[in-house]
Structure formats: C-alpha cells, structure tokens
Write a structure and sequence with these properties.
Elements lengths: L3 E5 L2 E5 L2 H5 L7 E6 L39 H18 E11 L8 H12 L2 E11 L16 E9 L12 E4 L5 E3 L5 E4 L15 H11 L5 E4 L6 H8 L3 E6 L2 H14 L12
Parallel strand pairs: 2-11, 3-4, 3-10, 5-9, 10-11
Antiparallel strand pairs: 1-2, 4-6, 5-6, 7-8
Length: 280
C-alpha cells in the first residue's frame, strides 16, 4: 500500500498503520521508541468499530477520541495487539535501545493496562527496567464515581530487552567514585511532574505532553538519536524532538493528524527559544 510521507526539518511522519510502516524500516535502525498508544479504555463506544456508526442524531461523536480509530478492543484483542507491536519493536530497535511507553487505565476497564504489560514481559524479549510516574499539573475530579479515586498520575513503562537489562542506554552522570572504584550516579527520581498536554487538536481528544516527552528524552535519548513514535497523533513526540535537535520518525493512520502535526511543527518556529533549564 502507498504510504505518504510528511517531512519537516528533522521529522518524518508516515501516514499509515504502524505495522505497515515498520515493515519498511531496516533492522536495528531506531535508537529509542517513545509513544503514548491508545489505552483501550473507551468502553462507552460499545462494540461498534466504524466511526460513522457512532455519531448521534446531530452528527456528534462525543465518545470518539480519534478521527480514525475507535478505542474499544476486547482486552484479549488489545493484549494480542500489544504483543505483536513489541515483537516488531524488537526488530527495529538498536541494541541497548529502550522503549518509553505511556499508559494508563480507565475507570470502566482498570485491568487492561496491567494485562498488556504482562503480555510484553511474558511473551516478548522485553522486560520492565523502570516504571515512571507522570504527575500531571492539572486534574479533573472523578465526580461520578462513589468509590474510584481521582487519578493525578499516569505511567511510563521503561522497557528494555531482558538481555540488555544492565546495559541499555541512559544519560545518568557519574557523580563520584567509592574507595573500591565503584561509580556512583546522579539521583534521578522516577516521578516526573509535567503539564497535561500542549494544545487542543480537533482530530485527537487524547493528546499528551511535549513537556513530559522532553524530560524523558533528556534522560534516555543518546546524542543525535533517532526517535520513533508509532502513534504520532498530533505530533507531540516530534515537537519534543525538534526542540532537542533529535531526529524523529512517526506513523499515524489519520491524514488529518499528519497534516496537523506538520503545521504544528511549523508554528513551533515562531515560539521563543526553548529553555533547557526547565528540564533540570
């Protein structure tokens, strides 16, 4: 199938399904994978999978988060999808690369995230090296539940190949040496505070934060890294990579979002020079 490419500076976005796009990549070409996939939490959409069938009498799609995807697989389907995704990640990811995978769970489907993570660590070459808590700066109370708490946090799972658990790349600096010669490294905590998202996108109601992405890349991305986001959406990962002068590839099934992301990158040039001290 034809896959259209959208390019801007250090960014290439492929308009196509991520599995079709990744087939075109050479083996071991990507330094790091950073993404926020669909969470499979939109159970209000029912069993429908065609977006046009989910509109109400006024043509509204209040239960739809994306213009080209309905986030309502069964949990078994979602686990199978996740496993296949990580098998392909294993092919395209360089040795000692890592995957930064932003997930959360929904009030109506709290088990799905944990089942998907278990699928990765039991049925692919990857294991969890770290779990990072993303503390959002703003939250909305869960006022409709009598027993579910208001969640201020989401998770970033740091996956590496099990065989590279002690060698995958991280930018932690050596701060001192013990008398034995053992190196001691800087203290980087596994809780990151970052803004919720950057801007409203009419084609994506589940955007995430370039503030978060920048802080993650500062920790894990090698100098001059090629970063891949299989669910590029409105271009959040690409915005962070452009700020840090890293190359980024992304795939996105929605042509509308591809065009939105490129225009967003162009608008980025009109903003003030990025202050790296905000990531300290």
């Amino acid at each position: 199938m034809d896959i259209q490419e959208y390019t801007y500076n250090n960014t290439v976005i492929y308009n196509g399904d991520c599995f079709d796009v990744m087939k075109q990549f050479d083996t071991g070409v990507v330094d790091i994978i950073l993404t926020s996939p669909p969470y499979n939490t939109n159970k209000h959409a029912g069993k429908n999978t065609v977006i046009k069938d989910l509109t109400d009498k006024n043509g509204l799609t209040s239960n739809i988060r994306y213009d080209m995807h309905v986030d309502n697989m069964t949990n078994d389907e979602y686990c199978d999808f996740t496993r296949k995704l990580f098998i392909e990640f294993d092919r395209i990811l360089k040795s000692n690369g890592c995957i930064l995978y932003n997930l959360s769970y929904g009030g109506e489907n709290s088990e799905c995230m944990f089942r998907a993570v278990n699928e990765v660590i039991t049925k692919t070459p990857f294991t969890i090296a770290d779990s990072i808590v993303w503390k959002k700066l703003n939250v909305f109370p869960n006022a409709t539940s009598s027993n579910k708490l208001t969640r201020t946090c989401e998770f970033i799972f740091v996956f590496c190949r099990e065989s590279e658990y002690h060698t995958f790349h991280c930018n932690k600096r050596i701060t001192s040496y013990r008398d034995t010669g053992q190196a001691c490294y800087e203290n980087i905590q596994s809780l990151i505070e970052a803004k919720n998202n950057d801007e409203v996108c009419p084609y994506n109601k589940a955007t995430y934060s370039s503030d978060l992405c920048t802080k993650l890349l500062k920790i894990y991305a090698p100098k001059g890294a090629l970063v891949y986001d299989p669910f590029m959406g409105s271009g959040t990962t690409a915005v962070a990579c452009e700020k840090m002068e890293l190359m980024s590839w992304g795939s996105e099934i929605s042509k509308n979002q591809c065009e939105w992301a490129i225009n967003r990158l162009k608008r980025q040039e009109t903003m003030l020079e990025f202050d790296f001290s905000s990531c300290e």
